[in-house]
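Reopening this one. Same input as before:
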Amino acid sequence: MRTQNEFQPRQVNTKVLPLFILLFVSAAFCKEYKDATITRVEPDGIVIKTKSGITKVHFAELPKEIQERFHYDLQKAGAYSAEQAANYTTYQKQQQDAQREREEAAAKNNAILAQQEAAKNRTQALQVRYEELQKQEDDLLRQIGEAKQPGPAYYGGKNNRTLLHHPNPQKSQLPLLQSHLSDVRHEKSEVRKQLEKEQR
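Same output, byte for byte:
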């Protein structure tokens, strides 16, 4: 059974090893770390700092004398590596969940914005149509008024003293104009209802 601090990284007194030069040689590779300072010792390896950055070297890649120097324990190293891998897996899942939540929130926000833009476009289109119908209504009322007027005046009758009117050629268009006016007013009423609904 491991103790609470069994897998905790150990801090190394870097003053003891201020420009520690490590030459690691194994059957797999040969690599030299010059002017390296050991910043942390972990159960499965050591973390060193060089001019090029921070690197972790696993004990499995180091000679036996180096392993012994830092009290390398294979079982502890395996348990620590497994724990680190599990922690990393958990971290990755948390990052993926957070990313998914951000994407879902962005998608919802975009959907809301799209709905608002669509509603705005519908309102603008209805307002334009309402104005067009208003102009049509005004024009039809003007034409109907003109059609109801008597035709051109002239004097006739006995001694040409009676004021008479010629037939108004537009009068025959009255039924059609009034029917068109009724249609326009009906559509105008429907458009107004839709506008009121959109603006609620």
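So the earlier flakiness isn't reproducible anymore. For the record, The radius of gyration is 46 Å.
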